[in-house]
TrEMBL record:
Protein name: Iron-only hydrogenase system regulator
Lineage: Bacteria, Bacillati, Bacillota, Bacilli, Lactobacillales
Annotated Gene3D superfamilies: ACT-like. Chain A, domain 2
SUPFAM superfamilies from the UniProt entry: ACT-like
InterPro entries membership: Acetolactate_synth/TF_NikR_C (IPR027271), ACT-like_dom_sf (IPR045865), FeFe-hyd_TM1266 (IPR023860)
Family annotation (NCBIfam families): hyd_TM1266
Length: 88
């Protein structure tokens, strides 16, 4: 079995449209094998939810997840990558 190169990243998500949450959760579930941890904060004062997801995955999986999230209505996403690369 060939080792796969992975990167650590944090995906920052701001949810403004709660109707998109089921699709967001489905995407995160599809990539759950790579998720290190997830933290969600409801910000009642501004009517948004802030989610951060730590992930250790191949570059293409991180990009696909982030891109899929970015296509959801009322959701903004940004990804920050670590310079740490590992073989898994």
């Amino acid at each position: 079995m060939e080792a796969m190169e992975t990167r650590i990243a944090v995906i920052g998500i701001i949810v403004e449209d709660m109707a998109s949450v089921p699709k967001l959760n489905a995407l995160l579930h599809d990539y759950s094998q790579y998720v290190i941890g997830r933290m969600g904060l409801p910000y009642q004062k501004r009517g948004v939810h802030i989610i951060s997801v730590a992930i250790d995955a191949p570059q293409d999986a991180i990009s696909a997840l982030s891109g899929g999230i970015g296509r959801l209505n009322g959701i903004s996403v940004k990804t920050a990558y670590s310079n740490v690369v590992s073989q898994s």
